[in-house]
Amino acid sequence: MKISLNWLRDWVDAGDDVPALAHALTMAGLEIEGVSAAGPKLPGVVVGEVKSVTKHPDAEKLNVCVVSTGKEEFQIVCGAPNVRVGMKAPLATIGAKLPGGMEIKRAKLRGVESFGMLCSARELAINEEASGLYDLPADLPAGQDLIEALGLDDTIFEVNLTPNRGDCMSVAGVAREVAAARATPLHAPEIKAVAATIQDAFPVRIDTGGSADAPVGCYKFVSRVVRGIRPNAAAPFWMQERLRRAGLRPISAVVDITNYVMLELGAPMHAYDLNRLSGGIQVRFAKQGESLKLLDGREITLTPDVLVIADERSILGMAGVMGGEDSGIGSDTVDVLFECAFFDPNDVAGRGRRYGLITDASQRFERGVDPQLQERAIERATHLLLDSAGGNAGPTVVTRASRSYPAAPAIRVRHSRIEHVLGVKIEAAIVQQLLTRLGMTVSGAAGEWQVTPPSWRFDIRIEEDLIEEVARLYGFDNIPEAPESGAHEVAPWTETRVRNERASDLLVDRGYQEAINYAFTDAAAQALLCPEPAIALSNPISAELAVMRVSLWPGLLAALGSNQRRQQPRVRLFEVGRRYSASAETEVIAGVAAGAALPEQWGSDARKVDFFDVKADVEALIALTGASDEFRFVAESHPALHPGQSARIYRGDRAVGWLGAVHPEHTKRLDLTYPVFVFEFETQAGLTAVVPQFEEISRYPAIRRDIASIVDEGLPVEAVRAVVEKSAGSLLKRLTVLSVYQGQQLQKGKKSIALGLQLQDTSRTLTDSEADALVAQVVEQLGRQLKATLRDQ
Fold first, then answer.
1. 469 marked ligand binding residue
2. pTM of the entire structure?
3. Which of 106, 209, 291, 522 has the most CB atoms around it within 10 Å of its CB?
């Protein structure tokens, strides 16, 4: 949020020390992210008055103007289409330096001398308007320095507010904080009631629902009719300039005034074209299937928990978020209905984000707007509109719901608790003074108070909230540092758990880079990859981040796509984080790989990464446990993975992860360039390590036997290994897969698996006959259980 220092000074004595003010606001919890000038330095640029305009004799699009500064007149050659006699415009005199580095010199254009330059707003770096000269207010005196004339000797604060401080999203709110922090009085501009000159009013009804516990949504709706304004009237120049400094673009008198009141007082307003309304206004919740055409042209379908404002014909807008197109202010509007309402924050929060709408109004309403502010805002807007566009105002009409908004209860605050939490002695009188400066109502004895927060503070609910208020106003700088004291419980160090840092280091060593993604993601994108039901967020950041992730893959694939769109040919990413299901949250380590198997080099042929490359990375993770023989990869299908290139990872009988190629349909939908491989692995169950046990090295020699078995081509190697290990027993010290062969020498549908068996006993030397008998036993079991035959038979 941007705040003009000059505007702030209308409300409070902010002083002249800008850095000190920025520091004071930051320490009070309103972080100042940036401080900038309202406009550039413009030496030599003054207000000029165009006295005459004649066509250039040799250039159709140029004019020769005589421009006065009040004391002197200059001949200026100008090509702006909007130049006219009597116009006030910025005049850069000879020697002036413009923000782009241009220095104004005496020039000759098509044979006619020019002694300066008339400027657009863009040429002065004031705004982006470049279609013509900057049309200045007619009441500015010719010759006045432009910085002084426009009040550009101003400072703009960029304020980063925490989500709980919606009360500070206005000049009035920030001024309250300055006044409280510096113990200076708040002198708010007087807002006088505007007397009604007509008796016109528009009927309004608030539908609170049938039952006593039904949500109300809107507790107060303040409205006022203003008739006979000048169509296309513009807001005064000073107002447009303040809006510009706040980051808003001026549009028209009515729209600018509603924005101005919102920025000044913190009360969002809406204006309707009265002649486009029918019957009366009803504030209610939407009916199933109702639709709304928004001001931005989009049409959305509403759900019954969305609060709307409607007339007899259609829905006029989403309450507290955005108005509809059908009732908006146009260039021909002459009769206006102002609206300023108080909506329950609980019935506004998240509704706009559901449809991708984050507006200035919604950000304020969902944090809470002062319920006592609406009448003042209507009076302020009416006064500004009558001054800017004329017209006649009707009476201010206040429509209230059948139930009142519950008042904030008094909160018990203990002096002893404040000192205990903050770790500093603060006099009771100072505590009471600080709370009173913040607008709190304080009653009770010095040791214990009953504190009622003001109507604009929706974030004060418990004692600790008030302790925080005391701390930030007392000054965090004034709270001395103290060594931490207390009992510390030393966590046990165990070898049965592979640390996440160790697993991360291993993947980094293998060429991966760590990614960190949100724990929530887009519901539609996740459903395609992982159909498992996801937990929906009640108040999502945006529509694209509306559910908790059930897998880390959606975030990693999005990061991969971002890298590939930036021409990264080889991407390896991993993430350690939690996934969330309806019943549990599970920590996993997941990865994605795409592109070349190895960085480009002369020592090896270029090839794309494949399933077995990524499987080797997963096996390296598994090896950290010291129990690789407990894991197996079983071919199974997953909605996100390519059929035939997906495997489930088991540890014993428990599934602990997945590995495979992303399904081609998903690769195409995500616009990924190369085949993509992913894995996901539970850390708790998968990275539990086996404690090392001493095992004596045998003094007796080992015997090596190799066998080649012919089995069905669909039989996994893991099944062969399992039979061999079980039938060979404890004498088998190592089993190695030497090769897997399929070719013309074998029957169709068969494959040959060559195995190396290392046999050894720790108590004696095995004989060849014993080894041969053991191998024969293995071959027999392979034939019996798997119908395997020896390849040389």
1. yes
2. 0.69
3. 522
Angle between helices 428-437 and 415-422 (to 10 degrees): 90
State yes or no: 332 annotated in a binding site. no
Average pLDDT in the 195-207 region? 93
Domain 703-790 = CATH 3.30.70.380: yes
Q: Are 422 and 475 in contact (CB under 8 A)?
A: no
What are the b/e assignments for 280-306, b being 16+ CB within 10 Å? ebbbbbbeeebebebeeeeebebeeeb
Task: Decide which of 3.40.50.1220, 3.30.2310.20, 3.30.56.10, 2.60.40.10 is the CATH code for 2-38+155-182.
Answer: 3.30.56.10
Q: How many CB atoms lie within 10 A of CB 728?
A: 19
Can you list the positions of beta strands (E) in 103-242?
Answer: 107-109, 112-114, 117-118, 155-160, 204-206, 218-227
Q: Is 465 annotated as ligand-binding?
A: yes
Parallel, antiparallel, or unpaired for β 281-285 and 547-548? unpaired
β-pairing, 392-393 vs 218-227, is antiparallel
Beta-carbon contacts of residue 522 (< 8 Å; ≥ 6 apart): 543, 544, 545, 546, 547, 554
Residue 153 clears pLDDT 80, i.e. is over it? yes
pLDDT given for residue 528 in this prediction: 85
Per-residue pLDDT, averaged over 625-640, amounts to 91
Euclidean distance between CA atoms 406 and 213, whole angstroms: 13
Reported as type and span, the H/E element at residue 240 is: helix 237-245
At 742, the pLDDT band (50, 70, 90 cuts) reads confident
Checking if the pLDDT of 397 tops 90, the result is yes
Q: Are 660 and 647 in contact (CB under 8 A)?
A: yes
Whether 177 has a binding-site annotation, put simply, is: no
Looking at residues 381-393, what average pLDDT do you find? Answer: 94
